[in-house]
Amino acid sequence: VQLVESGGGLVQAGGSLRLSCVASGSTLDDYAFGWFRQAPGKEREGISCISGSDGSAYYADSVKGRFTISIDNAKNAVYLQMSSLKPEDTAVYYCAAGPPIWWGQGTQVTVSS
Predict the structure, then answer these.
(1) Which of 9, 13, 21, 91 could form a disulfide with 37 if both were Cys (CB 3.0 to 4.6 A apart)?
(2) Is 112 helix (H, G, I), strand (E, B) or coil?
């Protein structure tokens, strides 16, 4: 499975961004997909995941109510809609699929105060 993320950028606090993760090499319903992020000097953390088969989703407390994960099987894509962004959301965001686990290359999100 190959994963390619896009949609990162620079946004002011309170703004929104939508990250995209396009998967190739398999159909989405074979796997679960997740979004992770890694801020400078910090460990990579999982923030959301979704089942490719039934669309059930999970959110970390840090993003619950602000971020929404979704899946489009027709486009073989997984999205992360991010709203009410905060400076502490600044990180490189990675898409992952598994099991086992494959990673995308990451996309930078920077939120200015």
Answers:
(1) 91
(2) strand
pLDDT in tens, 21-57: 999 887 777 889 999 999 999 999 999 999 988 889 9
> Which positions ≥6 away from 2 have C-beta within 8 Å?
23, 24, 25, 102
Which tens digits make up the pLDDT trace of 65-105?
999 999 998 888 999 999 999 999 999 999 999 988 999 99
Listed as own residue / partner, the contacts of 64-72 with beta carbons closer than 8 Å and 24 or more positions apart are 67/35, 69/33, 69/35, 71/28, 71/33
Who contacts 56 (Cβ-Cβ below 8 Å, separation ≥6)?
50
